[in-house]
Design a protein that fits this description.
The complex is a heterodimer of chains A (319) and B (392). By secondary structure, chain A is mainly α. Chain A is built from 13 helices and no strands. With 392 residues, chain B is an all-alpha fold. Chain B has one domain (43-388): Orthogonal Bundle (MetI-like fold). Chain B contains 17 helices and two strands. Chain B has a two-stranded antiparallel sheet. Chain B starts with a helix and ends in an 8-residue tail after the last helix. The chains are: A mainly alpha (319), B mainly alpha (392). Chain A binds chain B through residues 11, 14-16, 18-19, 22-23, 26-27, 30-32, 133-134, 137-138, 140-146, 149-150, 153, 211, 215, 254, 257-258, 261-262, 265, 276-277, 280-281, 283, 288, 291-292, 295-296, 299-300, and chain B through 39, 226, 229-230, 232-235, 237-239, 241-243, 245-248, 318, 322, 325-326, 329-330, 345-346, 349, 352, 359, 363, 366-367, 370-371, 373-375, 378, 391.
Amino acid sequence: MLSFIGRSIIQKIITLFFVMVVSFLIIHLAPGEPSQVDPLNPKFTPEMVERFREAFHLDEPLHVQFVYFYRDLFTGKTVSWKDNEPVLKKIGERFLNSLPLFIVGTILTWTLAFPIGIRSAIARGGVYDRSATFVSYLLYSIPGFFFAYILILLVVNAFHVPVIGMQTFGFGDVSLLRSIMDRVWHLLLPSVLGATVGIAVLSRYVRSQMLEVESQDYVRTAKAKGLPPEQVHYKHALRNALLPFVTMFGLILPGLIGGSVIIESIFSWPGMGRMAYEAILARDYPIILSVNFISAVLVLAGTFISDCLYMVVDPRIRL
Amino acid sequence: MKKTDTHTLHKDTGLEEGPLVPRESRVREFWRLLKPNKLALAGLIIFVFFFFIALTGLVLTSGNRPVFDPAMVRLQEKLRPPFSEPRLEDLRPEEIPTLGIYLLGTDDLGRDVFSRMLQGAWVSSTVGFVAVGIAVLIGIVMGGISGYFGRNPVRVDHILVAFIVSLGGGLMVAGALFSGGVLLLIGCAYILSPLWWRKVLGKQSAPRLMRFLYKDTLSIDTLIMRLVDIMLCFPVFFLILTVVALLPASMYNIMIVIGLTSWMGTTRFVRAELLSLREQDFVTAAKALGVSDWRIIFRHMIPNAMAPVLVSATIGIASAILIEAGLSFLGFGVPPPHATWGNILSDGKRFIFDAPWLTFIPGFAILIVVLAFNLFGEGLRDVLNPKLRERY
């Protein structure tokens, strides 16, 4: 166990290093340069460009820039090229905005996907199962932005509530209850949209896991003993089908930072995804690279956690 | 095989049917298995239909004087709803739509949405197919190498040569032609050197320096799988968005970037299949016959490993179309002279209240096509995987 943990941590660190190198190269070898983003701006004189290049080490060779960048990132000194704000502070603010979306979306996904999946596995081949299958494919296939517009039209027309942004603009002096309701309405649509793909995928996965377990011998034995169906399904089958999902707690970790670019830009939600999008538009390399780095760390940490959890919950796996 | 033949064979061999002849041809077996799965069947029909639409779209909307001109601007006819008649008195003869009616309406510049959708079908499907083609190609080659040669170690000199060649190439691209060229030449000379090396040295043992170069480091399998791990660490849509935004806008860049970022699944499938196929008797037999390695991989093993690749390719086309639509929506998609379903939708979203058809027609078109690809892909998975057959 300990040797597995040690080996896997070393491996992940090596992987992370190469991710750092690759993302740095992708960004810096692409044609064009951040100092030329706005050549028509009269304030951007050649001296300014020169000063800019020097301040951000842009005139150094690539490998020196690499060292400078990651040294700054690890000591927390990296600043955005656009407004000289510390990158970590900016990411932190945006992260707090994306967090409610992530939490509500995750809760929706997990609370809806399980009942749907389990029920369609138990009633396999029936009307419920077939329609649930179809709907989950539908949700999986619908382009997020298109679905967003359909939902916006429906909700705005039916309930006459504002949905764009984090809260209604200039809504300062109203009662607490109204402002909370306002927040909830604004939160609802983007998190539902963020959860749709998750619900579709996870409910299919739950269904197939459930079917796998339902065809095992011990479930047949339990049925043959004459146990009531609820006990067979929920006590014998479900508990064993849950095994792989414990590990998925690790895999939702990357979703923390990967706030959806498209959904956040439709709803003008000032979250991570939107910040990353704005950074790409402005060629703000430090932010792009930091977001990339943090999400790579989260992916690696997530897989590590899920490996460890798997070893804890499944005694058959001993590495 | 005719019925009488089967009958005589039955007499000769005492078997239920002829010993070597399969009961039914592959296509018929495929059809028999697919038929009960109504959703997958519908997916296949839409898939074929979409393919024909895309082909006719290419034929009818390209050329100097296309039958349906997707770029014809008629400002006096903007935002007409679907099925509306053109106002003939305002139009010059060449501006009159071919069908005599705006079948799907017009957009904010008065362009015929029907023609644009036709062209978009071709562009979207090209993006999907080419991107997935690139991904599958890389996946098969990487997975094939990793699954078949996986146990072979990578030697120190391999790493050095790869480093020198890539450095040389990088320098050439960056502009240092001379030093880059020299490095490339050294690398190529080293790669080609074994051809005459053996003649000069015979079978002598290598000198001490050489022995350091021939030291084993890690296996090819480990190398490729770590590469897959590295690629999986990137947030895919964000990476594609970054690269597409930094590169000059063009349809080819989008295809290539989507292809280069989605080969990891295929690699893993192919590798897993080849690892088990490698131990099978027909591969040993082929080796014993002296068939070359690459022929074994591509002629004997890959065809046996195609099932999961086909499934993931079908689903991959769907997701490539979705990614392209998403990029177009954010303004980084296929640039304007080409219409794609994504950019028809993203242009039309400003008029969602005045001209909802501009949002809903491309939206539903994308939805239906992607849904068809997904359903067909899942059906294909069930058909091609005998283990899953009973369960569904």
